[in-house]
């Protein structure tokens, strides 16, 4: 059976056909396909400003790459002021881009915040699907179910940043941020009516606690008293 999947009519996303093709590739090849199929053409120069328009896929992907480059650099990635950190990301972004853009460090910081927030939620949805489904389930089906789960957790909003998610999902910095956000995101991911079985089982901490030491001693003492009375 052939499965098809689209990005739910995102006007800035690639065509549904390119995304369907992407699902048959590994992550790196998928990102390259998305960049090649970016619907917004570049004039080839670096001097034209895009400051007043929405981000396109190639900007998002380069931003994610620059964010990972600076975040994973053991020399400059940690313990630096926020302004310095984002200026470094902006410098890396503009030095390595091959498309028109004049984004400021503040704009890139704001955009990356949106990317990380949405990608963290989608990653949580995707991991829940992976845990629930048996091994051997096609990757396409995981993505379709994860998209549906994300929409339920986002008041019907579809996930439009697959190209960013493919880029950052295996990044150590991304995993670290997700770990710190995990308690606050857990409740957002659970869709209504779908995890009732898991919820009914409950975590181990909510199950009936075993009797404590004092309770066991009292019970044993009562049993001895009852035995002696019968004798």
From TrEMBL:
This is No apical meristem-associated C-terminal domain-containing protein. Residues 179-231 are annotated as: Disordered. Residues 215-231 have a biased composition (Basic and acidic residues).
